[in-house]
Predict the structure.
Amino acid sequence: MKINTLRRLFFIGCLFYYGIVCCQSKGMVFIEGSRYIPLYGRDSIVVEVKDFEIDIFPVTNAEFLKFIALNPQWQKSKVKKLFAEENYLNNWLNDHDLKSGVNLKSPVTYVSWFAAKAYCECMGKRLPTIDEWEYVAMADKELRDARVKKSYNQQILAWYETPKTYNNLIGENSKNIWGVYDLHGLVWEWTLDFNSVLISGESRKDVDKDSNLFCGSAAIGATDLMNYAAFMRYAFRGSIKARYAIKNLGFRCVKDVN
């Protein structure tokens, strides 16, 4: 078959891929948007999520190491305090090396929202919105919306009780129906608008200890009060600030589909 014919076939394949006029980006999967009701904080309002692409895996230590080599302003010793607290890259030995026992293929953690946002923008991407992240994360291996399944929520809650999962390698958990790994079971993840959902009542005092970040004093506005797995995520997001760097908080990027 001639090269020009192969090129035409490839182009046609891209046109029909999920019905959009683009090809899937490397290391990402296409997410077909839809309308859905979030489990917390939206007062049962239907939210529309447009088509987008999302990273298959969370960003790793190895990938972030490459990023800061090209963007030294985000290195451990050079980052401005305005953009990251003292814990920033706390599990790194210095600007170029990880501490003993920290794996390059583990998700990068101890990164602030500012650093995560800068990384995604450097890659021509962005952080996912809460709605985008929750939309993809509500899927399991079989269903796009598995929230009604008892086993789905039990699995997430079991992860919350498992210590030090942030030390695990990416891709060890099963992928969901979209082909995305580790949305649950590895680390919490930054979102672009992480603090946009307000929890009724004062959820925490202004302290920096990890143990005080989970507090959820009220669940008013939840569309399903029994879904504690979802409530914990929203309570956590509502308890943090953009410069925080937390041991079990990482991120992944998304990309708009034109």
About this structure: The radius of gyration is 19 Å. The helical segments are 3-16, 61-70, 113-122, 130-137, 150-160, 228-237. The chain has six helices and seven strands.
